[in-house]
Amino acid sequence: EEIEIKDVIYEDFLDLLQLIYPGDVEITNRTVLHIMKLADQFQMEGVMKQAEKFLIRSNEFKNNLNLADQYRLARLKDHCLQSITTSQEVFELCKSPVYATFSLEMKGAICDRLSTI
User: Fold this and answer.
1) 19: which residues sit within 8 A by CB, 6+ positions away?
2) Residues 53 and 97 in one domain
3) Overall average pLDDT of the 83-98 stretch
4) Of residues 9, 62, 57, 5, the one with CA closest to residue 35
5) In this protein, which residues make up the domain named BTB (predicted)?
6) Residues 73 and 97 in one domain
7) How many domains does the chain contain in total?
8) Could you tell me if 17 and 38 are in contact, meaning their C-beta atoms sit under 8 angstroms apart?
C-alpha cells in the first residue's frame, strides 16, 4: 500500500531516509536546510540533533543564528551567541536584514550577550 506524502520533494525526502537508515550518509551544506525542514515536519528529533551538530561545526554565524531561532535549537543558539565577541558584531547583526526575522526571545538573547561583552 502506498502512502502519499504531499508537499515534499522526492530527492529531499530521499536524503532524509538515507540519514535515518544505516549507512555512511552525512549531512552536508547541500542537504542541511531541507533535512532540517523535513525533520521538523516529521518531528524527527534525532535527525534535527544531527543537523544542529553539523551547523555548530560550520561558520555561518548569521544564517545559523536564524536557523537556531526558527527551529528552537538551544545548543546552536548558545554557540552562535558565544561566538559574538565584540559590541561591533552585535551592532552589525542588529543592522542586518536577518535581525528583523528573529523572535523577541532571540533579540533579547542578543541584547543579553551585548551586556556581557
Assistant:
1) 25, 27, 35, 47, 50
2) no
3) 95
4) 9
5) 2-58
6) yes
7) 2
8) no
